[in-house]
Amino acid sequence: MSILFGIISVVTIVLLFGGTIFIHELGHFLTAKWCGLRIDAFSIGMGPPIWKKKVNGVVYKVCWLPLGGYVALPQMDATGTLKFEQGEDGEPGVEIPAVKPWKRIVVAVAGATMNVALAIVLSTIVWKVGIDKNLNLEQLPCILGTVEEDSHAAELGLQSLDRIVSVNGKPTPTIEKVFTEIALSDEVEIEVLRNGAMNIVKTRPRKNQLGMLAIEGFYLFTDVTVGELLPDLPAFKSGLKKFDRIRSVNGAPVYGRGEFINAVSENEDQPIVLVVERPKEDGSFEELEFTLTPAFSEEHQRTMIGIAFLQIKEHPTPQKQIKYYAGAVFRTLRALTNRKEAKHVVNMVQGPVGIASNFWSFLQIGFIKAIWFTALININLAILNLLPVPILDGSHIVYALIEMLTGRKMAEKLVLGLTNAFMVLLISFIMFVTYKDIWRQIKTHEINVEAREAHEVRRAESDTPAPALPKDAPAVPVVPVAP
Questions:
Q1: What is the secondary structure of 150-161 as a DSSP string?
Q2: In a domain, 411, yes or no
Q3: Nearest to 393 by CA among 111, 113, 32, 116
Q4: 214 in the same domain as 268
Q5: Cβ–Cβ < 8 Å for 48, 63
Q6: 177 and 38 part of one domain
Q7: Fewest CB atoms within 10 Å of the CB: 178, 210, 339, 368?
Q8: Same structural domain for residues 84 and 210?
Q9: In a domain? residue 22
């Protein structure tokens, strides 16, 4: 990976994630101005400021900790701690006038509204541009590719081309839903469609190396069709062409991109035989066989043959995307109310480190996937902020509604106690989630290092000397499957 690409990726992550926070706080800011509320500060990030400037009585600043942001609105404070202006030279402060409950509701809702609006814009971009169907696990059905021998999946009798249609009686039409239901369950009953007949599989999921419950030992079925080839690299030299569909490697059937990438990686500097189906003008296919030798690229730190898979674009409507985003958030919230599932949720939620890692992974796939993920984050932020929990926007709505219905404000001491308690809980939760994020990153790195060391051993044990690549040959990696 080039240094330039790395810099561009970091800047893109900052802009996308920072933009999500900015648009949320901008909603509060603009509606507060419209409603005539006093505004003391507008901050992106928390903690000590990197930059700040005071304009017309408002302090604008960018802070070091990328954990959110805030608009300081003393008239929105229900604890009573900010209702007096600070006096000069020790004199008593002047009480800041209260605002009507409906104005507080409008200001509280505005942040989430702006996030939803941004998600609609981003989802519209994804809809118009399109996204590669085979990398969109949130929409693909869960069809198994190759099932590894001596794996948990093999023990259960799962087979290639099995389609998982439900888990514990809940329909699971997509890969993402299958993985989510399994990750939340101590025991699972899986309904599998095989050759038109339904089969039931029961098991206890096992923790994987990242601490999540899963059934391991299979690849996912995805289309393995050649998209692009670069001149002078093994695939091009062998005679492969665009639209060739790869059916087997060294006699072993290939059902997906993941297993094909693995097969190429395991045969570095060793000739492999590919069987492909090539489309003919009359719509039929002819079966062809090619022999080529994968080579290791120092630039990309992977073994490859020089192809990119064919992108099959799909164009999910904004409504369909937002329905998925909201469904994913509500599924997690529902799990928190279930005693059996709640203990597993912590292994699925992510903090700033995990979100940044996901942004990085999606950028490796393509910018449009990062746009898709940004829309998901916006819907996530909108829904969570409207929860009726102290310190979140939803609490201001609850306090205002109580005042409208009863004619009295909630007791300031009670609100202050709840706010302080939930602030401690929130900070503790963020610290714990961040710890889990960092642990997962370290564990993932260790797994990658182990895989790399095993790969180096295979290279060292190879009896075939590595052929030299032409000096002017550009290197193109096989496109990886989505994380």
A1: TSHHHHTT--TT
A2: no
A3: 111
A4: no
A5: yes
A6: no
A7: 339
A8: no
A9: yes
Q: Are residues 167 and 210 in the same domain?
A: yes
The 3-state DSSP class for residue 355 equals: helix
On whether both 17 and 108 belong to a single domain, the answer is yes
- Which two structure tokens, joined as six digits, stand for 3? 């240094």
Placement of tokens 């992510």 in the chain: 350
CA-nearest of 328, 442, 340, 310 to 384 is 328
CATH code for the domain in which residue 240 is found: 2.30.42.10
Asked whether residue 217 is assigned to any structural domain, the reply reads yes
Looking at 296, 311, 326, the residue that finishes a domain is: 311
Shared-domain flag, residues 30 and 77: yes
Percent of the chain with pLDDT over 90: 63
Residues 27 and 116 in one domain: yes
How many residues are present in the chain? 483
Distance CA 218, CA 188 (A): 17
In a domain? residue 216 = yes
What is the domain range of residue 301?
226-311
Same domain, 185 and 249: no
pLDDT of residue 314: 92
Give pLDDT, residue 473: 32
Residue 249 burial (10 A CB sphere; 0-12, 13-18, 19+):
buried
- Grouping H, G, I as helix, E, B as strand and the rest as coil, residue 454 is helix
Look up residue 74 and give its DSSP letter: G
Sequence-distant (≥ 6) Cβ neighbours of residue 259 within 8 angstroms: 145, 146, 219
Of the pLDDT bands very low, low, confident and very high (cuts 50, 70, 90), residue 300 is low
Domain boundary among 404, 427, 456: 404
Contact 320, 124 (CB under 8 A): no
Give Cβ neighbours of residue 210 (< 8 Å, ≥ 6 apart).
347, 440, 443, 444
Tens-digit pLDDT profile for residues 103-132: 999 999 999 999 999 999 999 999 999 998
Q: How many folded domains does the chain comprise?
A: 3
Q: For the beta carbon of residue 442, count every other beta carbon within 10 angstroms.
A: 10
Q: What share of the chain is helix, strand, coil (3-state, %, to 5)?
A: 45, 20, 30
Higher pLDDT, 372 or 97: 372
For residue 441, how many other CB atoms are within 10 A of its CB? 14
Helices (H) and strands (E) in the chain, counts: 12, 20
Tokens 């690549």 sit at which residue?
469
Which has the minimum average pLDDT: 5-9, 105-109, 421-425?
Answer: 5-9
